[in-house]
Please model this.
Amino acid sequence: AQRVTQPEKLLSVFKGAPVELKCNYSYSGSPELFWYVQYSRQRLQLLLRHISRESIKGFTADLNKGETSFHLKKPFAQEEDSAMYYCALSDWNRDDKIIFGKGTRLHILP
Amino acid sequence: DAGVTQSPTHLIKTRGQQVTLRCSPKSGHDTVSWYQQALGQGPQFIFQYYEEEERQRGNFPDRFSGHQFPNYSSELNVNALLLGDSALYLCASSLELRKLETEAFFGQGTRLTVV
Model:
């Protein structure tokens, strides 16, 4: 079954500390992995995708096919990073739907 | 460009009624997807429209239907509303020919409450 698992509903991290949001997926094909973010009172927006291999707002994510993981990391948390983060996958070769995890709320403590 | 716009922003309906939600895609986008986001959950794919036809469908009953117009805007219709249909409904637009390079843009959503 296609599934994206985010084990933490809430993650609280002190400002300046490292952040790691966990994501594991279950999929039989070759999916593309994403992280979406939703800041307070804003719409859901793409943060990064694994094929671009970019660092966005200091965040990076490495696709580990062996562990089927796509954890989101940032070395030094900032208060403006507080938001809801969703890990997601899609397989453009098969269909266009995006499968989302349940999300992790990241709370940066001052 | 206002991006993806959805209307209305909030809606309250009675069980058994029917509802229509509307979405205007981002300028230049031709594909519209609809998602349902229940409280505490991630968005779940309902269906996708391209060239005025339903191309993909998620695990939702036939009570959920849609339409895409020649200007690429789209409607989501839900018949015989149930209390469990209460959720945030998100519309996302994308560009078919460049889907590997571009991203899906989401609207602010319509909050549907069924009482």
